[in-house]
Amino acid sequence: MKTRSQTTPKPLNTVRLPPVESPRSRPRPKPKPRPETRKKGTLGDLRRPKKPPTAFFYFMEDFRKTYQEENPSVKAMQDVGKACGEKWNKMAFEEKVKYYDLATERRAEFEKAMAQYNKKKINGELSEESE
């Protein structure tokens, strides 16, 4: 009698799968061209009013001055920014109010300037040829 190791194994019933395409052999789809919104080198309308900063940025201006006076050895803006963010997050709303008020005032000025700019643009007073 033969032992198991001496007999030849029976072939398994296998199923043949279709060949798989490799990602490299597949043709790549061509990228769609992006629509040009602006020509390179143009910056848009330079006469348009600039958006005002938020309350945090007004706080940051004040904080930077005092932080530099207190810590003259710190030169990295990253460290100053981190300290400023931590202080802003720890501040009570009552302390932040003056910065929010300042930002609201500047935002109102921006809204007025933007309304004037749009009115001039609609009336044709701002033309592209005058640049």
UniProtKB/TrEMBL annotation:
<dbReference type="GO" id="GO:0003677">
    <property type="term" value="F:DNA binding"/>
</dbReference>
<dbReference type="Pfam" id="PF00505">
    <property type="entry name" value="HMG_box"/>
</dbReference>
<keyword id="KW-0539">Nucleus</keyword>
<dbReference type="GO" id="GO:0005634">
    <property type="term" value="C:nucleus"/>
</dbReference>
<feature type="compositionally biased region" description="Polar residues">
    <location>
        <begin position="1"/>
        <end position="11"/>
    </location>
</feature>
<dbReference type="InterPro" id="IPR036910">
    <property type="entry name" value="HMG_box_dom_sf"/>
</dbReference>
<dbReference type="InterPro" id="IPR031061">
    <property type="entry name" value="HMGB_plant"/>
</dbReference>
<protein>
    <recommendedName>
        <fullName>HMG box domain-containing protein</fullName>
    </recommendedName>
</protein>
<feature type="region of interest" description="Disordered">
    <location>
        <begin position="1"/>
        <end position="53"/>
    </location>
</feature>
<keyword id="KW-0238">DNA-binding</keyword>
<feature type="domain" description="HMG box">
    <location>
        <begin position="49"/>
        <end position="118"/>
    </location>
</feature>
<feature type="DNA-binding region" description="HMG box">
    <location>
        <begin position="49"/>
        <end position="118"/>
    </location>
</feature>
<dbReference type="InterPro" id="IPR009071">
    <property type="entry name" value="HMG_box_dom"/>
</dbReference>
